[in-house]
């Protein structure tokens, strides 16, 4: 009954989680970073079965009568989580080691959270989805508070925890109502039953509450309030993980719930996500305009990007039947590319903050003159976030607009116009950072470079991979496009 | 016994939990109220489980999982609250607004 | 040379500067000589290939796409790497490659503040690729990529090497540095336009099923895009291209960008970047949405004429020489757009030659303004004067180029303007004669205003006695590099003026084919 | 709900007890009372589960919730030395917005439930046997079961790291 | 050896001339593009190498113009002795839509006459300029733009299509701007140049639109095709013919400084005198007349009403210009207004349909007017001042200048045996026969005024006592010889078209299409009434002038000063009681009317031009700072600042209190649900 090959990736990552914990037991204090090496090795090994599974012919392997499935969507997302984990570990090594935190446990929690994401990717019923979500959030609450001595980190953790738990409660309540209406926990069961109860207020209530639960996870406005404080308070690698890993998990949730479970009632979640998308873009971009702290700016930018990612959903609602997957594919592409760009942006923030010793944009003025390497990468990633070709971001926005204009009607055109306008507003605050780095005068006395070779080796590797990825995807978007198209097979048709 | 009774009761518990979360200044009491909300959800699940009497006992299994996860959450929550208490000698969460705007 | 014809030739023209830029990254910052030589080499290779393309170009069949190729690029959205040039894009391609070479030669030994030749050259080469690519692209996505690729280098060029004086802005409380305000304004304006242009492209690709411009043009000709759909799409395209041209209400970024940009920056901006917008109209907007173009033509004509008058009047009020030249570009591009608005072969050929002429002439004017600023350290016309006395050769060049700019017959500027007016007397049938004939008359009056402000500028700057503050000052006249950069431009101004067939030879038949396909 | 049936009486009593207890939890000035009243509520819910024929879940709730979680809370309260007794107000000054949201939620949830489910009977069908739960957990929901173990493990280790007092190195 | 070359050269030329006379132009005509190209090449050569040449590029200039003069003369002789050449050649340089654009040159009677006039007068003026510009601050620039002018003028007259005519037209305008503004150190000179260019440009708007309409209706710009369409009275052309004619005439008015557009010519005197001599006397200003002549069939056949307009404008110009000339103190301005008046004659002649008479006057006027300007130039060169009040008594110091100037004045005044007599008489005859009595009378009156102001000029300059300081001396030979040459022309030119004896001039004005009966209108015999009246007016003018200015020339200055105050008529009567009737009639007309016309001219018409200039500058400021900076730019900046402000306000919803976030979470959920319920039910 157990298809070990199918579950191989999850098993290996689970094994790595435990291996890291074990390694941490035996490693002396100054060689704690080896735990990270174990983690990285584990993740690399986990990639192998994914490749073999992808290569194998039968695309869908479902177990436990359909509640846990390994299909293209799951594989693409699992690969994405593993790579995200890989990068986050690389970014964390230098950061965490420098401040002598509890390294072993830190890597353990990150990997645990990643495992949660992978589970969510293949889960096809409410229970495993919920448990996967909790496995993603639990460690995240803890990691947010990892800088025990810093009051800001504690505050960030508490805020994140309370809002997290509350939205989990709402999610559960929603799930219970959906269970109550359809009598089944598995997505397929829900989809069949939902045809008959589509218009019932209770079912609408259930769907909306579930969406609110996931809305918190992807920090869509008005459930985004936790994000800026938590992003700023938490250690930067954790923030990077939150803005990419846990947000991607949230989108996995929304994608599965909307396109698979509630596929029968798009006229409910379509308009709801239209509102969330519009609000997130507008509020996220406007507030970001006047942010002084770089991490807070990236927080609002990630809220805005959550809005951009929600845009295709609105269009999907107006499409009956087959071409639902065009919108699905758009969101998956955007998530993948956003992951690369945002990780890169945070890697740069780590490097720059370490180099200048501050997170305020003003203090980075003139960085270009005394740290050209970091500045070039900063420009690369920030303008990719702004969506300027030839960097990867343009393709994400392009596909998003493509999905929205799929069937132009009043609402979708309005949303497309809002998105276009917001892309322009967004450019302003990205350009403001680049302007401060390149065009403002460098401070007279420049702090000596704490890092002997400019950037810690691990961070350098992360930089390298992400920069290459951004440029390659920018010039040959097919690299991401084909995966997204494969993943969208699940959506319909 | 009608299903609606249970749902009304769970709705009541859920709302009171919400009130508790919004009104209480002490973090621990907020956690208490959260537990209340999760209890309400459990009632829902078991009630619907029984209403459908589905073979896989989905409702009750879900309830079990909710209980376990709630326990884990409480653990995490108290750890964070302790951390804050140790740094600020007070667990009132409305004084916690260093991170804003 | 068979490989040249099936796409490799054009791809090399477009991408050699990019390769040069990447190679430059490896050159150490201190080693300026090799950097300069490498950059010059890259741009020269690109220019020579473009010239080879010009010679191998089959003028008989100027309407068809030549040297084209079509490779699959992003199958996920069905967009291909489709390139090719016809009579319209050939002159513009050669112009863009030539101006890049001349800019590099011009800036050989005087670099704008903060001294960083390597960075500056890399940006110029990036710009070269972006510009050449836009003229060569035959696929909407490829066009969009190159159209936006140009933004980044220009943003940095204005932002880092721009004019550092602080100015008080209407609407802002505190003072802000010109270059910072101008660079972000340029970026936001163009991005605003191109965001909506992108929406237009996408809508077109849905209805048409593909991103390839020739196919869409064919469908457009068969009248597949009509009704409110066509109106919205044309509106989006119009917004995108009008910002770039710039057309009247959307032009306010141009004077700021030009005043702030370093000399080479404003030359490239004026000579080629402005042409992307009008080229977009000719290549994409009109062939694909002919009926819609017809209904928009009077509006475009009116806006164009307003631009002519508005630009000229604004010039009369300028105190800063570079800003005056910037506004003059608004005026001249008004003539180009008037030519396009007529939707007749005469008008559009006039637009093509108008674009090339404006590119060379205004590029030259900006070179001169830059050199004068380099020597006088000011652009205030009130403080300048008697330039012919201090620097006779430079003064002579300025006089000559100003004459060309006011459309003196026998020089390049005349043909664009005159033929645009000729076209607008007899626009495409179906277009309202009243609007176009009044446009023609107002345009003709515009030429008088143009002559007025240019001569007024000449009198203030070139003629009269030099002010006392320059009394003791010793000025060195035009140096070797400036000569090398400027002589080809001056020669081309006279050449195009005396023998316009250089441009119209290729452009006329191409436009004829384009118009026949679109409207008949 | 017709009161003729005995079970409804039980339900009525337990329901009232639970609601009263939860009200005390959220309003009392004394933290200890709040904790203890939570015990009462959870106990009531266990009783309901028994009523619904879910004895195993009732047992788990009593054991896990009341046994472990509440005790944890008491420790938490004691450690954070919350002022016990009168005087200190544990609530925000202005309760009205919170009350409004709570009442609105109740109205929405209860209203929709009553509207839809009307008088659908619950106990018309045979109860679920505990062995079914067992087979179901280890057959259909074995993956969530494993994952929950990871959740607990992560929570365990993370909480220890955060809660413990660092050696002043 | 030089003589051998000369003989060889002339024999070759004679042979070519002989061959050209009979065949249709032969090698000479087909090579006519050289006439246009040589001056342009010379300009290029001068600009590039002028500085290094011993005489600053003057040699190249004179050489080029001399070549054109020689070529023109040979062509003239070939036409004179042959039966007229008509040749057209061209090379295509571009095509716009359906229109072929070509560099084309036409060689026919009219253009040959203009080649000859431009060539000869330019040679004279260039040679004169070599002397005049001695020690000038930038001779190379001067000779470059002077040759450019010659080239442009030749391109204009040789243009076979309207576009090339327009190109020549504008190039002439630009070279006049360069030459007028030659001494650009002083602001007035450069403003004068600018004024000339702008006024011309305004008039050119008419020309451009006229050309466009003609080009589009006929389908091509070639003049001969247009003329064929006119002759075939093509319908499409017919209904736009009036509009085209008016627009072309507006262009012509600008260049030939007719009434409303004449303001720039007097200021153009700021340029060096050879410039005024060549351009503002002989060639440039006649371009307008040439254009009207070239397009005459269009005016004659299809737009007859426009001819009356031409007549009226011509007459107005000739009268007021004549009056203005009387009151000027600056000798060059006297001649400038005199040119205006003579141009008025030519335009009026064309207006009256006298095609040959108008052109004949153009032909003769070119010689004696440029002669007068050169004479004035040599006087100014000697006295270093333009104003006649600083001259006087130069008769014996500058003998040759005096003699040539006298010949010129007599020719201008229309005294028999001199060129002016024949051409002006023919125009007056045309007015008389054409049935325009009022115009005829005004023409005679102006003939009188012309003689009057020329005598005044001669008297104030050459007679009486020398009023200026310094000691004037005769100009060098290089300046005198051209004057002598032109003086010869001023005398002989008249005999080319003596009615009844030599009517060959019509051959010099025939074009391919101009029908013979149009040409035939020239007088086969003298119209004695016109002859008589014209002659008496001329003689009378000289006598009155003599009486008024010559008699006690020494006291002349005091009398003039006396005359200026308002009481002038009363004083006058006391002295000349016996001439009361004449002085009573003549002087009051001369004094107050002339001064009134002068006042209106400078304070109204000139004033309008300056006001328009200032107004556009003001409008520019309004448009720029008002509309652009505070209008559109402000709106955009406000939009930017507004979004920023909105952002800064929105920031504060992030209060930092977690329970408010929780409230937002629940509140948001409830609002969403209720909203949806409402939308569903």
How would you describe this protein?
Chain A is mainly alpha-helical and 493 residues long. Chain A has a domain at 265-493. Chain A is 76% helix and 1% strand. Chain A contains 19 helices and two strands. Chain B has three helices and no strands. Chain B has one domain (3-90): Helix Hairpins (Orthogonal Bundle). The model of chain B has no long low-confidence stretch (mean pLDDT 89). By secondary structure, chain B is mainly α. Helices cover 73% and strands 4% of the residues of chain C. Chain D has two domains: 6-85 and 93-124, Four Helix Bundle (Hemerythrin (Met), subunit A) (Up-down Bundle), CATH 1.20.120.1200; 129-169. With 169 residues, chain D is mostly helical. In chain D, helix 1 packs antiparallel against helix 2 (31-51) and helix 2 (31-51) packs antiparallel against helix 3. Chain D has helices at 6-27, 31-51, 55-79, 96-117, 130-139, 142-163. At the B-D interface, helix 1, helix 2 and helix 3 of B face helix 1, helix 2, helix 3, helix 4 and helix 5 of D.
| Total count of strands of chain D | 0
Helix-strand topology string of chain D: HHHHHH
Q: What structural category characterises the helix and strand content of chain A?
A: mainly alpha
Amino-to-carboxy terminus distance of chain A: 29 Å
Biggest interface reads: B-D, 71 and 88 residues
Please mark out the parts of chain A with pLDDT under 50 across 5 or more consecutive residues, or reply none.
Answer: none
Series of H and E elements of chain A = HHEEHHHHHHHHHHHHHHHHH
Q: Level of helix content of chain A? A: over 70%
| Strand portion of chain A | under 5%
Mean pLDDT of chain D, nearest integer?
85
Shape designation of chain A: globular
Write the layout of secondary structure elements.
The complex is a heteropentamer of chains A (493), B (101), C (520), D (169) and E (681).
Chain A lengths: L3 H23 L6 H23 L5 E3 L4 E3 L1 H27 L4 H20 L3 H19 L6 H32 L4 H11 L3 H17 L8 H8 L2 H26 L4 H24 L4 H24 L6 H33 L10 H4 L1 H15 L6 H12 L5 H29 L18 H19 L2 H10 L6
Antiparallel strand pairs in A: 1-2
Chain C lengths: L1 H25 L5 H25 L9 E9 L4 E7 L3 H18 L10 H20 L3 H10 L1 H11 L4 E2 L8 E2 H31 L4 H9 L5 H18 L8 H8 L2 H26 L1 H27 L4 H21 L3 H32 L10 H4 L1 H14 L6 H14 L7 H29 L18 H19 L2 H19 L1
Antiparallel strand pairs in C: 1-2, 3-4
Chain E lengths: L1 H21 L3 H5 L2 H17 L8 H24 L5 E10 L2 E9 L1 H24 L6 H20 L3 H19 L6 H32 L4 H9 L3 H21 L8 H4 L5 H10 L3 H9 L1 H7 L1 H24 L3 H21 L3 H29 L15 H15 L5 H16 L2 H26 L14 H16 L23 H5 L7 H23 L2 H11 L4 H8 L4 H72 L6 H23 L1
Antiparallel strand pairs in E: 1-2
Helix pairs in contact in E: 1-4, 3-4, 3-6, 4-5, 4-6, 5-6, 5-12, 5-17, 5-21, 6-7, 7-8, 8-10, 10-13, 10-15, 12-17, 13-16, 13-17, 14-15, 15-16, 15-20, 15-26, 16-17, 16-20, 17-18, 17-19, 17-21, 18-20, 18-21, 19-20, 19-23, 20-23
In short:
The complex is a heteropentamer of chains A (493), B (101), C (520), D (169) and E (681). By secondary structure, chain B is mainly alpha-helical. Chain B has helices spanning 3-23, 27-52, 58-88.
